Amino acid sequence: MFPVAIGLNHRSAPVEIREKMSFHPSQMQKALKELRDCPGILGAVILSTCNRTEIYAATTDVETGIRSIKGFFASHHGLEETILENYLYAHTLYDAVRHLYRVVSGLDSMVRGETQILGQVSTAYQQANDAGVTNKVINVLFQNALAVGKRVRTQTLIDQHPVSISYTAVELAKQQFGELQGKGILIMGAGEMSTLTAKYLVSAGATTVLVSNRSYEKAVLLAQECCGRAVRLDDVDQYLEEVDIVISATAAKRFVLMPERMQRIMEKRKNRPMLLIDIAVPRDIHPDVGRIPQITLFDIDDLRGVVDRHHQERELAAVQAEKIIDEEMDLFLKWHNSLFVIPTILALQEKGEQIRDLQVKRALEHLSGLTPKQEKAIRSMANSIVNHLLHLPIVNLKEYANTSQGHLYTEILQNLFDLDVNEAGTRPSLIVKKSQEQGFHRRAE
Description:
The chain is of the alpha/beta class.
């Protein structure tokens, strides 16, 4: 069985195509079962996110499997295959495995190293399991892919370097105060940046979030999203006297917080430390506010500098992640080729034994009066001839099994000797068990 991956993402297709190609969670079980019934598909997983829609499948015939998946995409979403061809990409065999490993590690994401994709892949695999459409190859592939994604993040820390302005603002607040739970936080503005910031604040554990905006109605809506409280702009000074952190992202054309105003506020605060983060363009907070004792001020350029450094850190981490994926690819390659090699070796040995037994029987029928010792010598000679003839093909096939061409050499040998190979026999399952004992599988099938 061979893995294949067919799909599109944020690089290959515009958002209007990605929207049409997405699978709603309520449709997933039905879609998975329809896909499983397509010609050549023995196991499958559908991964559908806002930035990608991909089908991973196991097939015994790559060309048939790819045609089935493309046809399924077209029929399920009511699109012409000729149109889809402009946006779809196809990865086969070990390229498909490497692609999934890179996807789950965040290396193929719009934001390199993002964490959300790990959970999305896990959910997609669980949905396929629930629908009963996975098989041994899909199970091993996805169980190990999820382990690869976790290993990459643990060893490279690729997701520990925030690369969005809003997220970085929250991280700066955490660095300044530690835990955000119990800290008073005021968000000034209710636009997109403020909304993202509010979301990150809640994820970081903030429990006391105030929202102020020129439009009080918008402030109320944003406050509801982050379980906070809206405050009127005219009353904001009294809250500035109380909060620990201010994150400002208004659409004002002039400075909102001036030094004189903040000086008065700090006197009423009795100089209790305060963190101001200005992510507005143009700026909301006059730069001289940062000169006031006990006030720490970061503006958009400060945050962009941090983001740029974090981008560099993620790129370095990505290089390390690719090395980890190379190591994991070698493990998968050896396991996958063993599925072909061991049954083929067994079939070759069995065919040799059948030929040996048949020829020995014919020879003994033409030879009469042989002593038991002579008969034993004939059988031993026939057995030795077969073993010597098969020795090099078997040794070489085992060596090829550790290369990316192992399955091809195996197929050639099967065709040359016209072997009847039972891939679902008991011996391959022993190989899987051995791999599990060696730590290749992170979770039992």
